[in-house]
Amino acid sequence: MGNKSGAQRFTDAEKKILLQAVKTIIPIGSNEWEAVQTEYMRLLTLQRGGRAVARDVKFLKSLFARLRGSRPSTSTPFRPELNDMAREIDELVEQKTAEAELGDINNQDGLLDSSDDEAEVMEVNSFQTLEEQAVENAAADDVQASIPRSAPRTAPMPRKTRAAQSNGLQELTETFAQYMSAAISAMEGPSGEGCSSSAVDASVNEDRLVALL
Q1: Which residues have C-beta within 8 Å of that of residue 83, sequence separation ≥ 6?
Q2: Which has the closest alpha carbon to 61: 88, 33, 83, 81?
Q3: What is the DSSP string of 173-193?
Q4: End-to-end CA distance of the chain
Q5: CA separation (Å) from 59 to 18, 93, 112, 150, 208?
Q6: pLDDT at 45 exceeding the cut of 70
Q7: Domain ranges in the chain?
Q8: Measured between alpha carbons, how far is residue 45 from residues 62, 91, 136 in Å?
Q9: How far apart are CA 200 and CA 160, in angstroms?
Q10: Confidence of residue 100 (pLDDT cuts 50, 70, 90)
Q11: 55 by DSSP, 3-state: which?
Q12: pTM of this prediction?
């Protein structure tokens, strides 16, 4: 099983072609082993001029596993060249597998980070920027300025009050004038002729001054 009816066993040349195909593809999955099979048949056909024997994927994988897992014989500590080549290629396969697994982990972390970033963006967008707040405040000021405001006015003074204040001021002025006149007359006193009349006037002025006080 694995070889078609009448197929021959692998020769060393076919094993080298298989290892070359595996090294070209470095398969880490079943679909990539199908690519190995295609590459193997292409190389084998080029070498034999169209007389290549078809090999299935399962048989190619089994042969590669035997080549990489062979151990040196007890008679010699060295493995055959093909076995060393298979070991080196297998290390490349393991490295590619590790990189693929690491890439999957990074992709998962990237999805988590992107979801966190989206949440942060939504949170930031929920707050207004300083510029937006300034525009909003300016608009509110414009609306407030468009509302008419009645300027405070001082209530006019009633006519009666103004007339009373005017009369009071006039009376105060007249009283002050009389007071000053009486004071001056009292200070002058009697002098020479008309002493009696001056004395009378002084007495009158004193009476007026007392009345004003």
Answers
A1: 67, 68, 70
A2: 33
A3: HHHHHHHHHHHHHHHH---SS
A4: 149
A5: 11, 18, 42, 101, 151
A6: yes
A7: 9-72+79-101
A8: 21, 28, 78
A9: 42
A10: very high
A11: strand
A12: 0.47
